[in-house]
Amino acid sequence: MRKIGINEIDYIALGSTVLGTGGGGDPYIGKLLAKEAIKKYGKVNLMAAEELSDDALVVPVAAFGAPTILVEKLFSGDEFIQAFEMMESYLGRKIDAVMPAEAGGLNGVIPFSVAAQKGIPLVDADGMGRAFPRLEMVTFTLHDIPVSPIAQADEKGNKNIYHTIDNVWGETLVGATTIQMGGSCAIGCYPMNGAQVKKAAIHGIVSYAQVLGEAILDAKKNKQNPVDALMQKAAAIKLFTGKVSSVKTIIDGRWNKGVCEVLGLDEDNGSLLKIDFQNEFLMAFKDDVPIAMTPDLIVLIDAENAQPITAESIQFGTRVIVMGMKSDPQWRTDAGIVLGGPEKFGYQEQYIPIEELNNQK
């Protein structure tokens, strides 16, 4: 267990945005809420999953909705506490620790606000090791852990508790209500005991996000190029270098869907990269040939400073580097590929690991 203060939040937010692979929400408002809570209530204890007692009650807390909406319709911060307290009331016992549901930008840091206000630890783990667009797309589902009960709250004071027949129905029903709430809300979900967290979660993800953030922000101090520093720490594969030439986006329910085209530069001159996204980057095609696919991570960064670019913030003309990262081994199982692979999103392609697509180990 170690203390997380205001300084660490900047690193964790940035690294979480890298891991968010285009999704997970802009971290700005999450950083403000986390820093304000830490300033007021004190530093947060970050604990390893292995430190949990088997009967501890752990609840992931997250922002839920379309990333574009999350930028335009700001959270008050109270809705996360309301969702947390609803869950405690419904379960009839104290929650011992919170954790991120995903390692996305906003959702990588929002739980720190709740942990600080409630004076409880935050578990160094999540359910994705990245970000995914649907509520059932977590490693908890792979271990038959139910999403319900789900606590939902918005900034206006509306609150709901859901019990759904399976995790897909959790996405369906909470997603429908979220649209009526204006496109975003706070949720608590997947209540687990410590033994389940140890078995089902992806461990060490918050610390990993901090390492990635440090690589970018401390590169100059360490006399390194931030792009090189990030790629080294992330064990990433450089997929493409170019300039954003086109972005087409539609908002479909609570999802940003679209295609980003990158015109090749330097060693990729004359080639065209297309990245499909649904909140998160899902598929990358170089000259119409797949070079990366979900559940592996496709990360878009600014070529000058290695700042990660979210799907809703892509701008025409930006010089970018596209890099790929291996997904957690849980996603590379047969069940993981069914839950988070290309066919889940309607693609014809069958999953091929990113290192095989790019002839690397």
From TrEMBL:
Domain S-Me-THD N-terminal: 8-162
Classification via SUPFAM superfamilies: CV3147-like (SSF160991)
Family annotation (InterPro entries): S-Me-THD-like_C, S-Me-THD_C_sf, S-Me-THD_N, S-Me-THD_N_sf
Record-annotated S-Me-THD-like C-terminal domain positions: 166-354
UniProt-listed Pfam families: S-Me-THD_C, S-Me-THD_N
Protein name: DUF917 domain-containing protein
Species in which this protein is naturally found: Croceitalea marina
